[in-house]
Amino acid sequence: MTEDESTARVWDCIVVGAGASGMSAGLTLARARRTILLVDAGQQSNLAAPVIGGLLGHDGRRPAEFYAAGRAELAAYPSTTLLTGEVARGARGEDGIFAVTLSDGCRERARSMVLAPGMEYRYPRLSGMDERWGDSVFHCPFCHGWEISGRPVGVLADGAVGLYGALNLRAWSDRVTLLTNGSSRLTGEQRDQLSAGGVGLDERPIAALDGPGTELRAAVFAAGGELAIGALLVKTYLYQRSSLARDLGATFIEPDEMLAVEAIKADAMGRTGVPGLYAAGDAATPVPPSLASAVASGYLAGASAVIGLTAGPVVGLAAGYNDSPQTATGS
Ligand SMILES: Cc1cc2nc3c(=O)[nH]c(=O)nc-3n(C[C@H](O)[C@H](O)[C@H](O)COP(=O)(O)OP(=O)(O)OC[C@H]3O[C@@H](n4cnc5c(N)ncnc54)[C@H](O)[C@@H]3O)c2cc1C
Asked: Of the four listed, 50, 202, 239, 281, which is most buried by Cβ atoms within 10 Å?
């Protein structure tokens, strides 16, 4: 493809990211006979995990297998192109056409865009964490709790978030210890609640996690000594992976201590308020993220894009149904 050909073509939709949400949006658009370019950098969040937990029809499946199956389904639709790459920049022109530049310099244009880039999951830095992330170190009990159930489990967090995480984890283990990694900011009342819930508390600073391979055997304390744990739940914060959404005019939900930081503001149909710009998956999810919600929100964002491309704003239709900047109110 020459550069002229590439810049002359206008896709119906460019989907940024081909994880669960992007592929779900792509499938919806493909089935509506739209021309779609999916660009994917191949860094789906759960690739570090040995298996998927809690996604109906795929429970226990390896993540890479799940993504390969999604790509195979999309490949059956001739109007769909899936490109390995990264969208580096994007802008919406005055004519309403989106123009993006890939990191290899390639440029593409589209009448609409679905942002499905996922989020960067950030967890506390501790020696021994990275190699266990997604396995014996995890962020979501609904994703990984079954696999670690019955083991002695630590929860690395503090304050109300730590209390909540530790009490909740009792659904999966009778031996839960809240590890605050130094003096905690728990109130007396919170300490009482912890102890009434049968959860231990250890405030010693942690030096490292130890165990063979991706397994966890113990938290090792800086001053010596260790606590035997077979898994560790860590409080994780989610950040946008790039400034792309901001550059395209999207706005963000106020950060919340419990949930995703800076999720893109979009309504229940994935509409961002920027005409033709939709968002789905972790990047636009102000509730605990999951593959199930990524698939669902991708489907809805894809459907919105199809409606926006074909019906457009309809005279006489109630405000909430039209794809206008006034309609996206966020969560
Ligand atoms: C370790 C771990 C394990 C998990 N396990 C489970 C589980 O068992 N069950 C469950 O329900 N949930 C699980 N989750 C959560 C789940 O993985 C996410 O909710 C889900 O992957 C979100 O899907 P997504 O499509 O929004 O984002 P992602 O899956 O992250 O996919 C986004 C894609 O977009 C690409 N991308 C980003 N920016 C660009 C760009 N500029 N250009 C091109 N491509 C781009 C990325 O490389 C990536 O391939 C887990 C999360 C983690 C971190």
From this structure: 281
Looking at 234, 261, 282, which one is the last position of a domain? 234
Give me the average pLDDT of each 10-residue run along the chain (331 residues).
62 98 98 98 97 98 98 98 98 96 97 97 95 96 95 96 96 97 96 97 98 97 98 94 97 79 92 96 92 98 95 70 49 34
Cα 298 to middle of ligand 1, angstroms: 12
The answer to whether position 329 is within a domain reads: no
Most ligand 1 atoms within 8 A of CB, residue of 15, 46, 89 to mutate: 46
Kindly report the three-state secondary structure assignment for every residue of 42-78: CCCHHHHCCCCCCCCCCCCCCHHHHHHHHHHHHHCCC
User: If you measure from the C-alpha of residue 94 to the centroid of ligand 1, how many angstroms do you get, rounded to a whole number?
Assistant: 32
